[in-house]
């Protein structure tokens, strides 16, 4: 193998594995939490993708847009957990309990972060 080919192949394999598309079927805060921190149905943990690859894994415009909306919800939940000295999972469960009766969509909550814990 000529010098540098193995490095290029490794880079190609890494780059091709970066194109991960998150689930569009998520409808609950608890599923959003699980996708972010546990992975859904064998999928990658969004937290790990972000930590290891930064913006590279979400180069697609639609993925970036969806990611930013969902990240705003996760950020709000993390802040709530820190303020109340509870786990992020507990904060996600509290959020889902509060969201369900008024039936606010995740899209709505992403646009109205101030209403997540009302």
What does this entry look like structurally?
The chain is mainly alpha-helical and 118 residues long. It is 60% helix and 0% strand. The protein has one domain. It has helices at 5-17, 29-37, 46-53, 61-83, 88-99, 106-111. The model is unreliable at 1-13 (pLDDT under 50).
Output the keywords:
118 residues; mainly alpha; 6 helices; 60% helix
- Tell me the structural class: mainly alpha
Number of helical regions: 6
Low-confidence stretches: 1-13
Counted beta strands = 0
How many structural units, i.e. domains? Answer: 1
What letter string, H or E per element, gives the SSE order? HHHHHH
Averaged pLDDT, please?
80
Percent strand: under 5%
Largest β-sheet summary: none
Distance between the first and last residues' Cα: 62 Å
Helix content: 55-70%
| Shape designation | globular
Q: Radius of gyration in whole Å, from Cα?
A: 17 Å
